[in-house]
Amino acid sequence: DLLTLLQRDLSQHILSEPKDKSWEALGKGNQFLGDPSLVLADEQAIAHGAYFDLSKGPIYLGAGVEIEIQPAFGLPAAKSQPTFFKQLATDVGLVKLFPGINLNAYASVFEVKTHAAVVIESFGAGNTPNDTAFTNTLNQYVSQGGVLVTISQCTSGSVKPGKYASGKLLEKLGAWDGKNLTTEAAITKLMWMFGQDPRPLRQRFEASVCGESD
Hints:
Elements (H helix, E strand, L loop, with lengths): L1 H13 L4 H8 L16 H5 L13 E3 L3 E3 L22 E5 L20 E6 L9 H12 L3 E6 L15 H5 L3 E2 L5 H14 L5 H5 L8
Parallel strand pairs: 3-4, 4-5, 5-6
Antiparallel strand pairs: 1-2
């Protein structure tokens, strides 16, 4: 079960590592080895030095020398019946940028008749290539009414539109700010919004609905 997995991972994969390596892999911000707010539940995540940043919410469970559960922070009882949204748009695309990307290979993605919105996994704080071909492809898509959404490939942090010169292209094209949304959250949010309204407002997307972004 989860408790057994957490305890095993901490004892076998973390405490057995050399001290300097452990701190390098696990010490992130205010998250340090031994801090009960650090929860690791995936061996591959540990191997790659990934971590869960839980500083923005209550700690439900901690795994250190002992397993600590905070029942007081359990999910609150629902005050009303949940609302299910069955109408989800499927015309949402995704492009993950990489050095040397040739957008001609993704021409069908940047067609409004195919995708009303395209999520772009940018570099760092929202940086992209700025060559002529890349610029023309995105500019044509936007001019036809397509919506671009910028998110970051980084495991933590947030998009900062126009912070660097290489990030000004998407800002100039009016790309929606995905802030610190994960890829899955950005796509799901767009599917939900376009499912309710074929022309949703940018302000609504950039505002947090249920704590999914800053």
